[in-house]
Design brief:
Shape: globular
Order of helices and strands: HHEEEHH
Mean pLDDT: 84
Number of helices: 4
Structural class: alpha+beta
Strand order of the largest sheet: 1-2-3
Radius of gyration: 16 Å
Low-confidence stretches: none
């Protein structure tokens, strides 16, 4: 997604949050947004699990924007993140599906979906 957004002239800053820091994700993301003067975050969450439908892997792609709060919360934050777009892509988790899954093909499809939604229009630098 990052590469595709760069090629299409979107202003993009890469931020990766490691699993040990996941409990602090809100603080990490908001602080990064302030440092980079960003008002939106494109979040990609990797999913791996098992439920009544069986084993699966997938991704949730979300676009969030900063929205001012009426009051500052106890952590000192005076804004919150609100969702503009979210779509989950779920795949059956089998050796065959792993063998046939192509990250680039998935990224092209997910990028086309979010672009078609119209939420990226304000982010284009052209």
């Amino acid at each position: 997604m990052f590469d595709r957004m760069i090629l299409e002239k979107y202003r993009v800053v890469l931020l990766t949050v490691e699993l040990p820091d996941a409990h602090r994700i809100k603080d990490i993301v908001v602080n990064a947004m302030v440092r980079q003067r960003c008002d939106r975050v494109l979040q990609v969450i990797t999913l791996v699990g098992e439920d009544i439908r069986g084993k699966y892997f997938g991704f949730t792609i979300s676009l969030l924007h900063a929205e001012p709060k009426q009051e500052t919360d106890q952590s000192g934050m005076n804004s919150s993140l609100k969702s503009e777009y979210s779509k989950t892509y779920r795949h059956v988790r089998t050796p065959e599906s792993f063998d046939s899954f192509k990250v680039g093909v998935f990224a092209d499809s997910a990028f086309a979906d979010i672009k078609a939604s119209g939420v990226l229009v304000p982010l284009n630098t052209q």
